[in-house]
Amino acid sequence: MAERGITWQPAGWLGPVVTGAWLTALIVVALGRADLVVFAAPLIGALAGGWWTPAPPRGLQVDAEVSAERVFEGDTVTLRVRMTPPDGVEILGVSLDTGPGLEARPVSWEISGGVARGEWELTSTRWGRSNSWLELAVRGAGGLMVGRRRYELPVVSTFPSAGTLDAVPRPMELPDLLGVHLGRRRGEGVEFAGIREYHSGDALRSVNWPVTARRGRLHVNERLAEQAAKVVVLIDASLDIEQPGGSTLEMSVKGALAVVQAALKRGDRAGVIALGGVIRWMAPGLGRRHLYRVVEALIDIKSGGGASPADFGGFPRAVLPTGAAVVVFSPLVDERVISALVDLRRRGFGVVVVDVLRVEPTPRPTSEYDPVAVRMWRIGRRGVRNRLADVGIPVGVWGEDTELEEVLRPMSLRPLLGARR
Amino acid sequence: MNPDTGRPGGRPWPCVLSAAVMLGVPAVWTLAAPITATASGLPDGSSMSSRSAAALGFVVILVLVVGAGSAAYAIVSPGQTAVAGLAVLCAALALVFAPVEAWADGLSGIAALAFLLSLRLHAAARSGPVEVEEWIAARRPMLIGAAVTTPAAMAAALVPSGWSLPVAAGVGVVAAAVCTVALAL
Lengths: 421, 185
Hints:
Chain A is an alpha/beta fold. Chain A contains 8 helices and 20 strands.
């Protein structure tokens, strides 16, 4: 519920009417036709009466309610608005101005007892936070004044809808966290790792009795620890290039969400870093609540090249923990990001890159040099991929007819090796 | 975008009635009485040829037809305030060409005001249910203004020109007092 002020101004027709009345009065005096004043007297009196009415009140009570403020792409929410104007103020109409990412469809509108009620269906078309405004047009002082009020409606947050994914790259070096991956470390898992002599403190249930009987000394079974991986998804939002199947940023966000979702489902810790207009990050975490925190961080990502770092030295260790597998979604166009990825690899992180750029420059038909330039551009792109591959960063291209699963599957077959420092 | 505002119906009959009175007064004067241009500054009626009178009558009828058409269009599309203004202008023009008595001028003027207000009521009724009493109460200052100025102007037109100003002032004060008493009651 909100009490909002109306900005009043004289009605548009008032100026011409007053001017016309003055001109008529002049003509009446010039022609000596005072009888016409009698005809105009009621209109002049009404105008004067309306003009002397106290200034219309500025307050207007607007109650706006959205059935859900958090939705997924394609979902529809209902917006209900109830406007109660003060006495003497009449609502002429409303218009709903939705920002990008929301489409509005009017459902009902009625004014009864001076109270206006409207209902719209808002369909979310793109992830992000969508603002919408209600523009009210009102009339007061018997129609001599018109007012406008722009009312900001509750923000609708649209979560990106991500496909399901099974293949998520994982690092070779696993941290000491309880999870599902079998690393090199011996621990309390179920996978057999070897047999060794009994040391004091070993659990009795781990004694291997056949071996103990053969060798005459106590021997125990060793098992591999079940560890969790840390996966950090890095989104290159320095550029947002429109292309078929969604812009590069859109694809990156959806891909990142799919990777985070799959990693969390597997029991790993997953986090996200976005490089773009504003650097955003979410340290790796676990569980469903963490997934929603990541989603909230993702929908605020804006494109822009202002904050792309040349290296990753400045990131806190909690955000980019040592030994984490880094999955990068990037159009591989910004040289700073490419240098930063090489730096990241040299710091010992296992990095894979998903190239989300699906378009290439279109040569002008009249130009002789454009086809050559496009070929050079393609060679440059290949060079970037080779440069990354040379330092141990595999690059997969997420093409138009390719699923993300197909891109990440080959990179997930083996754990990612971290460089020796 | 106004969802579902275009409801049929509304309240067209007060508009029709008031438009009929507004345009009917000069029409009746033109048709019933021979056109005399004494008060209009035109040549004297006795010296005016029947041809000139017929031409003037034709002009008045033409103006009234345009006014009637405008009024009809304004009733069909009540949002068209300019067309409603054209209908009122046609009534005023007809009164210029066909001078009438002061009370008829006043009657036509009141009908013009009623026409404009009833059009607004018609438009409001088309967009949703309207409480007529509340609607009229919201326009009380305008109605009081008209109720004060109209009798004053009519009285001023009826008396000799030397007395018009004091008479108009007196009638205006009395009308204002009557309105105040009526509202107080």
